[in-house]
Design a protein that fits this description.
Number of helices: 6
Distance between the termini: 77 Å
Order of helices and strands: HEHEEHEHEEHHE
InterPro entries: Transposase_22
Strand content: 5-15%
Number of strands: 7
Shape: elongated
Number of domains: 3
CATH class of the largest domain: Alpha Beta
Keywords: Coiled coil
């Protein structure tokens, strides 16, 4: 008799455990469904906001890039000037003597040193020079290799400079391969150089037809996106 009661008790215990598990699972599922139902519009709204933020960031970057498009950065000029006017005259003289480019006052939007002056440092502060028009800036950039005492670069943002530094290793690798490679803003442009391939082909076969057909192949260009 006792054994029958014991078996009945164990059976009831197992049944209660199963019902408890089913009830717990049902309640959990109900709660999760309710949460999903309430969270779904929030998640969708979050995705939408994220997309809009990314779009705004791109627009801001585009505007900033446009603002910098007429600027150049000048490095290496001794910091001896006592006024902005004297700094401008110094730069006008350098461009005239080194590049044979005449720069008028009305072609300059602004020119000034970047950062706070530190008399303890011997290194001169860089100079930001902003032109009224883009063509004058481009004329100077095209001839910048003729500058003897200073060097100039584009006015890149901090983010772009970091991306360019990150691409420097890849740039060196491509040049070591013999490819034409250069940085354009925050991207690495690579053009495969076929000169070495053509030389090997001429060594293997002297056939004019095969050589000419190879030379007619277009040069491949690859753009490597900036590292994020």
């Amino acid at each position: 008799m006792d054994s029958q009661f014991q078996m009945l008790f164990e059976k009831m215990k197992i049944e209660m455990q199963n019902q408890t598990a089913e009830l717990k699972e049902s309640i959990t599922k109900s709660i999760m469904d309710t949460m999903d139902e309430k969270l779904s519009p929030i998640i969708e709204e979050n995705k939408k906001l994220k997309s809009e933020v990314e779009k705004l960031q791109k627009e801001i970057e585009h505007l900033r890039r446009g603002e910098r498009s007429n600027n150049i950065m000048i490095f290496g000029l001794e910091e001896l000037e006592t006024s902005t006017g004297k700094l401008l005259n110094k730069m006008k003289g350098i461009f005239k003597n080194d590049l044979n480019i005449t720069l008028e006052d009305n072609e300059i939007n602004k020119i000034h040193r970047i950062g706070n002056k530190n008399n303890e440092r011997n290194k001169p502060r860089p100079i930001l020079c902003s032109f009224v028009t883009n063509w004058k800036k481009n004329e100077i950039m095209k001839n910048k290799k003729s500058l003897s005492k200073i060097y100039i670069t584009e006015d890149y943002s901090k983010e772009v400079l970091e991306k360019r530094r990150a691409l420097k290793t890849e740039l060196d690798k491509e040049r070591q391969k013999g490819n034409v490679a250069y940085l354009k803003h925050d991207k690495l442009i690579v053009k495969e150089n076929y000169s070495s391939h053509e030389k090997r082909k001429r060594d293997v076969s002297a056939s004019p037809s095969s050589s000419s057909s190879y030379q007619m192949q277009p040069r491949k260009q690859q753009t490597i996106s900036s590292i994020k």
